[in-house]
């Protein structure tokens, strides 16, 4: 049974199925990170630079194809794009599993990244869920992505120790095939198309958003966050090995560290939201990450110090990974969240690619310590830029179907003026072709029922 305030069975099944598909795909992308530097040494052409390229190159094709794949899903449908993306991901996994050189593995990773289905999955979530439940659906997907990363850090080393590097890639191919089966048999077909601008990039908005300094700070931040991630995992597995922790036991460190980091960020997120300290805690997280990277540089031969460094790193990483999309949602102009998220995701994946290449190059020329220290220095630049961030809090978005005719320009402008006059409404935008009103509001003072009365719902 469904009710107006909660998920219907159909929405619940769709949300968890989409989260599972997204999570399995990210699991497949992430599992290689903690193991390739250790288990790829027998591949032809192996070098630290190619370790970085293999770890990060998926981000290049993701960055290039993320927005176009979202547009394509608007034209030919969500499911065909998801099927194609998962097929490419499976093909890339098979290519990498069968490769005997780093070049073949890199080609496989390029193909994996070509299956850029994030936009199509989020758009399908918008199609299947009602507006009042959409935030919940997106949160479920976000949590699943976070969990997939944690599982990958543990499962990757376990699979590699049992089945070798190729076994990790065969596992990712199997995950992709399971995803295809889930799309076919577990996902309901959408009965309508969700609000496009909420999940899909609009080309005409690019110029405006690329000039928005607040959004650019977030784009730079997510780029740098994932740059550090891929750069760190070029060097950290080998640093653990040098400290005396055998490759097959690396998950012994990752598992407790990741679990504890998730425990630690919960009170931080709660305090930030309740006391309006999001900006201050975000800046503190940048400094904690810088400290963690310095400890990694100093921790050669000291397992305890390296474990502490990784705990600090992942606590800061998880907090920022959760905070940045929330900040973006609050700061994006009304009706521009899909475009803002497209630019943000492109920046994220480009950062992953850049971090892999730079991390591999630094490791090859200067060693692991230089990777950690130079990335730590980049945190100072990020901290300086973050000083200009807005301390966002209680800003929410709403999308309401219009219950009156809005073809007339004068009527539309009058309706926008009425909405802007309501307490708590910060921005209002009406898109006639969607029959929707996009509102950006102050959650402390805005009353949704008042807006519904204005637009005759």
From TrEMBL:
Family matches, as Gene3D superfamilies: 3.30.70.100, MFS general substrate transporter like domains
Predominant cellular place of this UniProt entry's protein: membrane
Keyword Membrane: yes
Positions of transmembrane segments: 16-37, 49-69, 81-99, 105-125, 137-162, 168-187, 218-239, 251-273, 280-299, 305-331, 343-363, 369-387
Location of this chain's protein in the cell: Cell membrane
Residues in Major facilitator superfamily (MFS) profile domain copies: 14-394
Gene Ontology MF annotations: transmembrane transporter activity
CDD domains: MFS_YajR_like
GO cellular component: plasma membrane
Domain of life (superkingdom): Bacteria
InterPro entries for the chain: MFS, MFS_dom, MFS_trans_sf, MFS_Transporters, Sugar_transporter_CS, YajR_YAM
Keyword annotations: Cell membrane, Membrane, Transmembrane, Transmembrane helix, Transport
Keyword Transmembrane helix applies: yes
Topology in the lipid bilayer: Multi-pass membrane protein
Pfam families: MFS_1 (PF07690), YajR_YAM (PF21987)
Record's protein name: MFS transporter
């Amino acid at each position: 049974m469904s009710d107006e305030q909660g998920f219907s069975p159909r929405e619940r099944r769709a949300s968890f199925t989409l989260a599972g598909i997204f999570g399995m795909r990210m699991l497949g992308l992430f599992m290689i990170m903690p193991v390739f530097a250790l288990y790829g040494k027998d591949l032809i052409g192996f070098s630290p630079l190619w370790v970085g390229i293999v770890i990060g190159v998926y981000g290049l094709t993701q960055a290039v194809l993320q927005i176009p794949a979202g547009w394509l899903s608007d034209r030919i449908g969500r499911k065909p794009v998801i099927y194609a993306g998962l097929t490419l991901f499976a093909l890339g996994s098979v290519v990498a599993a069968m490769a005997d050189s780093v070049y073949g593995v890199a080609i496989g990773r390029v193909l994996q990244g070509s299956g850029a289905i994030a936009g199509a999955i989020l758009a399908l979530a918008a199609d299947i869920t009602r507006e009042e439940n959409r935030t919940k659906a997106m949160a479920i997907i976000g949590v699943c992505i976070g969990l997939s990363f944690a599982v990958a850090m543990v499962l990757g080393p376990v699979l590699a120790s049992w089945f070798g590097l190729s076994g990790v890639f065969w596992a990712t191919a199997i995950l992709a095939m399971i995803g295809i089966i889930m799309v076919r048999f577990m996902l309901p077909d959408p009965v309508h198309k969700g609000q496009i601008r909420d999940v899909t990039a609009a080309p005409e908005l690019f110029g405006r958003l690329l000039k928005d300094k607040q959004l650019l700070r977030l784009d730079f931040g997510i780029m740098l966050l994932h740059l550090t991630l891929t750069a760190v995992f070029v060097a950290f597995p080998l640093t653990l090995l040098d400290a005396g922790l055998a490759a097959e036991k690396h998950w012994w460190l990752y598992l407790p560290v990741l679990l504890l980091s998730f425990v630690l960020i919960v009170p931080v997120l709660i305090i930030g939201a309740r006391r309006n300290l999001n900006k201050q805690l975000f800046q503190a997280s940048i400094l904690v990450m810088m400290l963690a990277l310095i400890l990694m540089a100093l921790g050669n031969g000291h397992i305890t110090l390296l474990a502490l460094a990784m705990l600090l790193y992942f606590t800061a990483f998880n907090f920022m990974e959760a905070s940045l999309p929330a900040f973006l949602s609050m700061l994006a102009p009304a009706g521009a969240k899909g475009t803002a998220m497209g630019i943000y995701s492109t920046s994220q994946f480009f950062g992953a690619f850049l971090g892999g290449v730079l991390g591999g190059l630094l490791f090859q020329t200067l060693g692991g310590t230089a990777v950690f220290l130079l990335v730590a220095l980049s945190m100072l630049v990020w901290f300086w830029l973050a000083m200009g961030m807005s301390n966002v809090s209680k800003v929410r978005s709403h999308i309401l179907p219009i219950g009156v005719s809005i073809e007339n320009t004068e009527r539309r402008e009058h309706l926008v003026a009425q909405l802007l006059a309501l307490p708590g409404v910060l921005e209002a935008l009406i898109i006639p072709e969607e029959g929707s009103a996009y509102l950006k509001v102050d959650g402390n003072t805005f009353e949704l029922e008042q807006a519904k009365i204005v637009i005759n719902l």
